[in-house]
Design goal:
Length: 691
């Protein structure tokens, strides 16, 4: 049954890829997830849900073809031997259950493989410092000789054969993100060889061509052979570019693969956050590819609107709408378009919290989709939820991300819910933060939830109602969930400073809340950032753009240090430096005076005075939990049957954690799990102990 408007029909056309046919143009490109070979069941279920949601092609993450491409400590896919086939077969089978094609991205990571687990010697086109992990790891790889190249080709071929046995339909040769040997050989800066694999472009392309030809020869009868290639590194002549060598490479290999999956490199460019790039941002770089090949082309660009997708196809830029993040935020995006439910699409906000999962070697999580990564271990589905198991009526207090998600999910379960919010505008911190520079797409977190709630007759949103404990008790609700958020501390106390900073009560001390409320400092401003994610950097940008002379001090070694894990740190620092923001790292705040602050150089224990007219404290936040404290006696004496504190009011954290906390509270309502046992399934290695 299709009820989507005809204007989107083109997205649901089948497209042939070599010997296989994709049922539609929705293509989940390879994306890592922090689960990898460690959590095969969780991974298979996560991918299955995407196929169920209508993605016509669902791919793995990068899959190591050999133990000399061991990406530990990161958890990617592995196909080192036949023993790895069953785990991957689980995923291919799960994806097939819904009529989608399963793709696998084979890779040897060359000098990006640190081999910390396997202890194999890394190798590459030349001997050079290892590039993987932090990018600052000790050790070098060795230069590959002819035998190494022969071995590599055999391993790649064997991996392709194993992938075919595992049931995959599309098998990749990977030359993207600067992360694979095939790409390292393409690049002049890494390839200084004088044999037939170095020198001229034809020679540098040889290895990539060999791998594609070998793969076609091995599995091309039944499997499509795709390439994933970086067609611009945004490095000008230093790297591949769509006007330079990448153009020539695509022209040389145009008809060889069955499919071109093209993007920009490095990963931080490909997965640029919404703070820096908008929907369709890769089009100028990838548009040339379709002019050079008759094979289908996949590209990404955080497409979430069906109009933009249709346009990219109609303008002849893409054959498939590639997506990693939009498929994470909404695994059912294609189905929603097909069923004419576009307003139900849970649009990705481009925050890259999903990326941080891989970078922190933990299972993927998503700000918008709290079920992401929880499909198998908690049995959570993004679209369905257990129906209510009582006629309880619930009062949720605070309509930030935690309260909104909690009320929405409780409403979906069928409970009667009153969602009460002190401010006239719902949305809590998200409504306020989305007005800061570059963060406007974050509003999608609240917009989607408000749209859903507006359709639920059993959920009542009551803004403009600051609640006291007396109000709560008077309301007669016996089940209360408190999601009242947190406020930024004014005293500088945080990870680095444990006691209020002397002078923090002076009038020229501001907090992010003051600024978001429109109380803005002027003149020379020192921002003290002991939060380390986006807030300090965003406020520096805001105030610098408003003409303040901004100095950012942070105890961390880098400005907005944690944003490394969302791939934003370098761009943030560049933007701040371009705006003339002075940056003092490894600096803790010691005192605030009239006209200056004293900062302590953590590395050298030296004190320095920095002249300023005002100070912005971006340190810890104080949970707004007084209501819970005031209501505790009513819970103890039974006037309240349940009382739960969630989100920032419980423990201030990132927005993704607040959404998750709201969702968890809704799932656990009426059925609290035993706190003594893990609330999720784990994947154990079977120990076949023989006595
Ligand atoms: P979270 O991230 O945990 O959702 P937020 O700070 O974003 O937290 O949202 C909390 C919301 O709770 C804010 O919109 C705030 O106005 C609201 N709030 C705080 N105290 C009360 C109260 N006593 N009554 C009603 N709403 C409240
Ligand atoms: Fe999009 Fe953020 Fe979810 Fe990643 S975590 S898919 S960037 S909303």
């Amino acid at each position: 049954m299709t009820s989507h408007a005809h204007m989107y029909d083109i997205l649901f056309e089948p497209v042939r890829i070599g010997p296989v046919t994709a049922p539609n143009r929705f293509y989940q490109v390879p994306h890592c997830n922090g689960m990898g070979y460690r959590m095969p069941r969780a991974l298979a279920e996560m991918r299955r849900v995407k196929a169920e949601g209508g993605w016509g092609v669902v791919c793995t993450e990068e899959v190591e073809i050999h133990h000399s491409s061991d990406l530990a400590p990161f958890f990617e896919g592995r196909l080192w031997s036949d023993d790895d086939i069953p785990a991957l077969a689980l995923m291919a089978e799960a994806v097939h259950r819904h009529g989608a094609l399963a793709g696998i991205e084979l890779t040897h990571n060359g000098h990006d493989a640190l081999n910390y687990y396997s202890r194999a010697t890394s190798f590459g086109p030349r001997s050079m410092g290892l590039m993987g992990g932090t990018g600052f790891e000790p050790g070098q790889c060795r230069r590959m000789d002819r035998e190494d190249i022969r071995n590599l080709r055999r391993w790649h071929r064997n991996a392709a054969l194993r992938a075919k046995r595992a049931g995959f339909d599309i098998i990749y040769c990977y030359a993207g993100h600067g992360l694979s040997l095939a790409m390292h050989f393409l690049l002049r800066r890494f390839n200084d060889r004088t044999d037939e694999y170095g020198g001229s472009l034809t020679n540098r392309v040889r290895l990539f061509r060999d791998l594609i030809e070998d793969t076609k020869d091995a599995v091309g009868d039944r499997c499509a052979v795709a390439v994933r290639m970086a067609v611009d590194e945004l490095l000008g002549d230093e790297g591949l570019s769509s006007q330079g060598e990448a153009y020539e490479i695509v022209a040389m290999l145009a008809e060889l693969p069955d499919l071109w999956d093209v993007n920009i490199s490095a990963w931080s460019n490909d997965s640029a956050s919404s703070r820096f790039e908008k929907e369709g941002f890769q089009e100028p770089y990838i548009a040339f590819v379709k002019q050079l090949t008759s094979k289908p082309v996949v590209g990404v660009g955080r497409y979430t609107s069906p109009e933009a997708m249709v346009s990219a196809v109609r303008r002849g830029i893409l054959d498939f709408i590639g997506a990693a993040r939009p498929s994470i935020a909404d695994p059912f995006l294609p189905r929603k378009i097909q069923e004419g439910r576009t307003e139900d699409i849970r649009e990705c906000i481009g925050c890259n919290i999903c990326v941080s999962g891989d970078n922190k070697c933990v299972p993927i999580r998503c700000t918008q989709n709290p079920t992401m990564g929880e499909e198998w271990r908690r049995g959570w589905h993004p679209e369905t939820i257990a129906p209510k198991c009582s006629d309880a009526e619930v009062l949720v207090i605070g309509a930030g991300p935690a309260g909104l998600e909690c009320a929405r999910a409780l409403g979906q379960r069928g409970y009667q819910v009153a969602l009460v919010e002190a401010r006239r505008e719902p949305g809590g911190r998200v409504a306020r933060e989305a007005r800061l520079p570059g963060l406007s797409e974050w509003r999608r977190v609240i917009d989607w939830r408000l749209t859903q709630i507006a359709r639920m007759p059993n959920v009542q949103l009551l803004p403009g109602n600051p609640m006291t404990a007396a109000d709560v008790l008077e309301s007669g609700y016996e089940h209360v969930i408190i999601a009242t958020g947190a406020i930024w501390r004014r005293d500088g106390v945080g990870r680095t400073v444990y006691h209020p900073v002397p002078g923090c009560d002076l009038l020229h001390v501001y907090t992010p809340d003051d600024i978001m409320d429109g109380r803005l400092p002027t003149g020379r401003v020192v921002i003290y950032d002991d939060d380390h994610y986006y807030m300090g950097g965003v406020l520096a940008e805001l105030l610098a753009c408003r003409g303040c002379g901004v100095t950012l001090c942070t105890p961390a070694p880098l400005v907005s240090h944690w944003s490394q894990f969302t791939l934003e740190q370098e761009r943030i620092e560049r933007r701040l430096r371009d705006l003339g923001v002075a940056i003092h790292t490894r600096s803790a705040l010691s005192a605030v005076h009239v006209g200056a602050v004293t900062v302590r150089d953590i590395a050298a224990s030296r004190l320095t005075d920095l002249a300023c007219d005002s100070v912005v404290m971006v340190a810890d936040r104080a949970p707004r939990d007084a209501l819970a404290t005031d209501l505790a006696p009513a819970r103890a004496d039974g006037r309240l049957r349940t009382l739960r504190l969630i989100g920032d009011a419980n423990a201030p954290h990132i927005i993704a954690q607040a959404v998750f906390a709201g969702h968890l509270a809704a799932r656990e309502f009426d059925e609290m799990p035993d706190a003594d046992v893990p609330p999720f399934a784990r994947e154990f290695i079977p120990l076949n102990v023989q006595s």
